[in-house]
Amino acid sequence: MKVGIIGAGAVGSACAFALMHRRSAREIVLVDRDRRRAAAVATDMQYGTPLVSTIDIRDGSDEDLAGSDVIMITAGVNEKNGGATDRSDGEGRLRLLDLNVGIYEEIVPAIVAAAPEAVLMVVTDPPDPLADLTRHLAQHDRVFSTGTVIDSLRLRVHIARELDVSPDAVEAMVIGEHGTSEVMLWSSARVSGVPIQDVSADLDTLRRRVEHDVRYANISIIEGNNASQYGIGIASARLAEAVLRDERTVFPVASFHESYGVTMAMPTVVGREGPTSVFTPAMSSLERGQLDQSVARLRSAVSRLGMRT
């Protein structure tokens, strides 16, 4: 089981570390335009492999991606360097799209040439329109972005904090854009099967606090540590496992939806071929309206790319 990672910066390194620590793959190849950085990251991690498992983690070039089952694409301008850390900016992560399009146009064809059978996972922000671009460039459907997996985990954690319970007791999901228009499905949120409105004494206050914390979690992290990397790293490793093991587990990753004409996050079956079946969750009329707005926002972003999906 082989995973390639494009980009050895904060997020790429976090993905590699999570893969190693979770024993997700037998082989990990780090590719970066700065080969010295990729080599340094790989070497640093190699020193920990005797305590983890039999795993080969190394730096490489595009050609070394041959035989990869999954390739994570983390390369690109991040939120801090791209000026996407203003909470009042309605563009949010979408501000990075024009900055990262050229990078993807360069690296995706090289990835596909080296590993034509690999499933491609887009991690770079903004991941959803970049996944649309990746699908267009790769000319296949084995493409998805990490979508709202990390947002859903954040939602569970913040609800758990408010209610003083363990996050694994919370069932809650975010769909739509991985960005400020994301839709938090409060109507179906549960704590060990109990509707959240039956658990919280003041759901409106809880909801306002949690939505703010989740929607701007990345900015809060960046303000303190320059990059939001560890949560998405472990989420990406978990998604890679679903592909490598053909688990057919359901995650809110983002894949292309013919009916919506855009890539966005919905509960999706993930297995060896990447995203397959998609489920439509129950939504309130308010949540459905919010989803329509999120989809429209993503369509507008993709239209800037000047391509036919």
Question: Could you characterize the architecture of this molecule?
Answer:
Helix content is 40%, strand content 18%. The protein has nine helices and 16 strands. The strands form five sheets. A six-stranded parallel sheet has the order 3-2-1-4-5-6. α3 (97-114) links the parallel β4 (70-73) and β5. α3 runs parallel beside α4, α4 (127-138) crosses α9 (285-303) and α5 crosses α6 (203-215). The longest helix has 19 residues, at 285-303. The radius of gyration is 19 Å and the shape is globular. 49% of the residues are buried. The model has no long low-confidence stretch (mean pLDDT 95).
Structural class: alpha/beta
Number of strands: 16
How many individual helices? 9
Rg to the nearest angstrom?
A: 19 Å
Could you give a short account of the major beta sheet?
A: 6 strands, parallel
End-to-end C-alpha gap:
31 Å
Q: What characteristic shape results from the CA principal axes?
A: globular
Helix content: 40-55%
- Return residue spans where pLDDT drops below 50 for at least 5 consecutive residues: none
Could you give the order of strands across the largest sheet?
3-2-1-4-5-6
Strand content: 15-25%
Mean pLDDT metric: 95
Order of helices and strands: EHEHEEHEHEHEEEEEHHHEEEEEH
Key traits:
16 strands; single chain; 40% helix; 309 residues; 6-stranded parallel β-sheet; globular; alpha/beta
Summarize the structure.
The chain is of the alpha/beta class. The protein is 40% helix and 18% strand.
